[in-house]
Structures are given as C-alpha cells and as structure tokens.
Amino acid sequence: MKAVTQTRYGAPEQVLRLEDLARPAPGPGEVLIRLRATSVNTPDWIAVAGVPYLLRLQGRPAGAVRGTDIAGDVAALGPGVDDLAVGDPVFGSAWASKTTRAGTFAEYTVAPAAQLIAKPASLAYEDAAAAVMSGLTALTALTETAPAREGQRILVNGASGGVGTFAIQIAKHRGAHVTAVCGPDNRDLVRGLGADRAIDYTTEDFTTGQDRYDTILDNVLNHPPRRALRTLAPGGVYIPNSVGNTGGLLAGLDRFAGAALLGRLGRADVRTTDAACTRDRLAALARLLETGAVTPVIDRAYPLEQTAAAVAHMLGHHARGNIVITMRPRPARS
Ligand SMILES: NC(=O)c1ccc[n+]([C@@H]2O[C@H](COP(=O)([O-])OP(=O)(O)OC[C@H]3O[C@@H](n4cnc5c(N)ncnc54)[C@H](OP(=O)(O)O)[C@@H]3O)[C@@H](O)[C@H]2O)c1
Questions:
Q1: How far is the CA of 20 from the centre of ligand 1 (A)?
Q2: Taking the domain 2-130+276-326, which CATH number applies?
Q3: How many angstroms separate the CA atoms of 39 and 93, rounded?
Q4: Whose CA is nearest to atom 7 of ligand 1?
Q5: Whose CA is nearest to atom 18 of ligand 1?
C-alpha cells in the first residue's frame, strides 16, 4: 500500500515521503480499513514538526505514519470483532492504536473496533473524515466538559479553524449566544455558521472588552490565561484547548499549564477537555451530521500524494475549517 512516512522532525515537505509499505494486520479487537479519506489535525503537525521540542526527547520518528481520522471501508476483521462486516463504510479514529505505524496518511490503517461506527450513508467520506477529531473535540467540550445551554453566552477563540467551526455550530444548536473570535478574512464564515457576533482579533481584544461569558473555549491561548479569565461571568467555565501554536521549546504548554494551575488555585473554573474517540461520542456526532445540525467546513482536500502540502497548510495556523486528505480508489493489492 502507499503510505506517507516520517523519519525525522522538520518542515513537512522535507520529512514526509510517499512509500510502499505492507498493509498493517488487525490484531484482536481491531479492524483493517481501506481508507477513502482522512484529515490533518494539530497532533499530526506537532508530531511532524517536533514541537514542543520536548517531544523530540522520545526519539526519532523511525518511519512513523501520522494521521488518526478514519473514513473508509472495512477490509478485514481481527479476532473478536463481530459487529462489523467486510465492506461496511465506517468512520472513527486510529488514535492510540497499539499497532505499530498504523497511521491514516495511508491507503490502509488499523483501528480498534471500539473507535469505529457505521458511516451514515448521507455523509460523504470527506465530511466524515473532517469531523472526527475536530468534531469530537468541540462536541466533548460543549456537551460534556461545559454543557452549552439555551441562552448562555459562549465565546469561541480560534472560531474559524477545525475545532472552532464545529464549536460554533454545536453551541448554536444547543441554543447558546455565540461570540466567535477569528481573523478579518473569516468573519463572514463564522457568521454564516451561526455566530451571533464576530470579533476580529486584529482590531479587538476580547480580554479587554466589557462582555462576559459563561463559557470560553480557547483554541488559541494567544492571551495569558489570567486575562481571559477576567472575561468570565460569575460561575463561568474556561476551557484551555491549545498546544503547539506558539512553537519553540514549550509551544504553549506553559500557558496551558498556567491556566490549569489558576483553576487548581480556585481562581476560576478551568476545565480541560479531550477528544477521546468512543462509539457513544461518534454516534452523537453522527446524529448532528445526519440531521444537518452541523456541517463540516472543509478548507481544501489534498490527494494522499500531497500530504506534506496538507500538513504544511495546517502548520500555517489559518486553515478555514478542516483540511482533508483523500485516497484515490486503487485495485486491491498489498
Ligand atoms: N483537546 C483535544 O483533544 C484537542 C484535539 C484536537 C485539537 N486540540 C486543540 O485545538 C486547537 C485548535 O485546533 P484546530 O484544529 O481548530 O486548529 P486550526 O484549524 O489551526 O485553528 C486555527 C484558528 O486559530 C486562529 N488563529 C491563528 N492565529 C491566531 C492569532 N495570532 N490570534 C488569534 N487567533 C489565531 C485562526 O484564525 P484565523 O485563521 O481566522 O486567523 C483559526 O481560527 C489546537 O491548538 C489543538 O491543540 C485539542
């Protein structure tokens, strides 16, 4: 199979290359998937670029295949998987799969069956792939970490990116009033997704404004957390949700840790969120996608051969929505 591998850290165009690899084999409880589409997420460019630099202490990447989001068809079942069948269209995540080198920047991947569900027929593979990590992160943040409620005022910082475009729609679907912070070129995009107010961060700093918010989902952490916390309404929740944007040794880990510490010290209600992929969460996301309550925003779809360009685009930090990678249909062979 064709797969994109990485042997050292650096600029995507310099460290990613297309190779022929053997297909991974599904172990107990796992599924081999013939991928039709995947997407690029923050953990992918972090792993490629090797930021925060602390990450490099874990050693050279040694031919790793990056990527986690899955939209494709079941190609084979590992022992013990009896609720999926070969040929089923599925979507989900290969994140934390124990199988070596089973990333999704490839024609085939392996994932735990517990992280896959049937792809709704009405959902295109590209949209399904775009939705997994970005959609699950926004969904978990706004339905579990700090459940959005009717009439609440919610601010999404980094509203025009992968997570932000889902967050706006999910918060609006739950009846909240949404303030979306983005760059000047994306104000129309976020308003079109339902945001009640768009703040252009180049002309207005939300941390110095008079408005107060019940929830702040901060996908950028470009402000010191103590300043963002000042804009919380009484009882409000701050969700720091960004690592990597600032590059360098710590790449924002310091701000993330600082926010968590302020929460521990009782200065505010600070809650971290995660995008762990479970069947229940995928099913909740699938319902939103099927009903049209939420529509993935796709900036651009790249063919697998151009994965390095796709990762470089994400590294620019200004993707409009999600970046997708598609696999050309090929005759079945190893
Ligand atoms: N908790 C989890 O499990 C989990 C999972 C996935 C991702 N994440 C985190 O979620 C964050 C967002 O991910 P994503 O996929 O949405 O990233 P993304 O698509 O790259 O989003 C970029 C966003 O940041 C904004 N931005 C860029 N530079 C900015 C600046 N200088 N000031 C203010 N805003 C700026 C962009 O606005 P414009 O383009 O409009 O300028 C855009 O809205 C990441 O930092 C990642 O660490 C967490």
A1: 33
A2: 3.90.180.10
A3: 11
A4: 42
A5: 161
